[in-house]
TrEMBL record:
This is Glycerol-1-phosphate dehydrogenase [NAD(P)+]. One of its GO terms (cellular component) is cytoplasm. One of its GO terms (molecular function) is glycerol-1-phosphate dehydrogenase (NAD+) activity. Catalyzes the NAD(P)H-dependent reduction of dihydroxyacetonephosphate (DHAP or glycerone phosphate) to glycerol 1-phosphate (G1P). The G1P thus generated is used as the glycerophosphate backbone of phospholipids in the cellular membranes of Archaea. It is found in: Cytoplasm. Glycerol binds at residues 125, 172, 252, 268. Substrate binds at residues 125, 172, 256. It comes from the Archaea. The keyword Lipoprotein does not apply. Its EC number is 1.1.1.261. The keyword NAD applies. It comes from Natrialba taiwanensis DSM 12281.
Amino acid sequence: MFEKSTWIRLPRNVVVGHGVRSSVVEVVDELHLQGRPLLVTSPTPRAVAAEPVAADFEAAGIDPAIVTIESATFESVETVIEAAEAEAASYLIGVGGGKAIDIAKMASHHLDMGFLSVPTAASHDGIVSNRGSVPDGDTRHSVAAEPPLAVVADTEVLAEAPWELTTAGCADIISNYTAVMDWRLAKRLKNVEFSEYGAALSEMTAEILVDNADHVRPGLEESAWVVTKALMSSGVAMSIAGSSRPASGAEHLFSHQLDRLAPEAALHGHQVGVGSIMTAYLHGGEHGIWRDIRDALDSIDAPTTAAELGLDDETVLEALTTCHEIRDRYTILGNGMDERAAREVATKTGVID
Ligand SMILES: NC(=O)C1=CN([C@@H]2O[C@H](COP(=O)(O)OP(=O)(O)OC[C@H]3O[C@@H](n4cnc5c(N)ncnc54)[C@H](OP(=O)(O)O)[C@@H]3O)[C@@H](O)[C@H]2O)C=CC1
Ligand SMILES: O=C(CO)COP(=O)(O)O
Ligand SMILES: [Zn+2]
């Protein structure tokens, strides 16, 4: 008897383009959302986009509330839940980078409320996904969360953000190559659930971005357009898979461990990009695709070495040898890397000297 079932949750409206920030109120209206919005933001995005969006709501006769969070933690999720209750909010709007959007997504899941995603940086592929990712003690799991009802991605805002945020988004997409390699390996060795559609979409997204790398240049609004479309596509791959597997393998374990060992040293996307160079080497050896990944990162100005991440060699090696413990996700790292093997892969790929 056939007993499979799946439930793919995706946004109803995705609005991308020049100046669309001013469409947030219209998008809310189109979704028939009633009552008071709570804008969930972080310090810089508050000034860049949350306050202008709040002003648009006021002009439309709607009184919005705003809460600012500083970090991607469960305490921040709690802060937002309390603010939503205290302010009698009816729905949430995450305005910011990955931190603000993840926290809004997770709080709205807990509150059983709708949420909109308004990215201010093309820096991560959680813009559309129904996963939230925050550290939990010594571990980190991406948890099921509310997918956005709608996404409003203003390329003018995204293009004005610091360039390294956009290159971080590119690197988060380029890392899909190794994430899918790890996923296939885990399917073969551990029989983990695998989605051909999720994997194919994730790989195709990385392919299209790399093919369009010439259009990803500082000062070009078109860069924000190209990268944001890729970030959305990667998020849809995660929603199809019902897991972050299409976009998160050992290179993400490496980055999550760096977040613990050297908090705020580098952006999420940049860390996973460097991780991806090394895990591609572990998958394919000298003649694998690690050089293609390094060159693709280099071509869009993303870091390819520990020094460019602002990290010392020992921190990179510690992360490589311990990151398999951070979550129960089988990858090319297996039960962990030997220290000399870690030094060899990091040296051969030029990540450390
Ligand atoms: N759920 C998912 O599927 C995914 C989740 N993630 C998560 O997303 C996070 C990484 O996202 P990322 O965006 O790099 O992290 P942040 O949200 O921390 O943003 C990075 C930096 O950019 C700043 N910033 C954001 N927008 C602008 C702007 N327009 N102008 C100037 N500065 C700006 C932020 O300012 P400020 O400090 O003031 O906030 C912050 O300093 C991680 O927590 C990661 O785990 C990543 C991928 C997928
Ligand atoms: O960053 C992500 C995908 O790019 C989310 O993955 P995690 O499940 O590792 O948090
Ligand atoms: Zn990521």
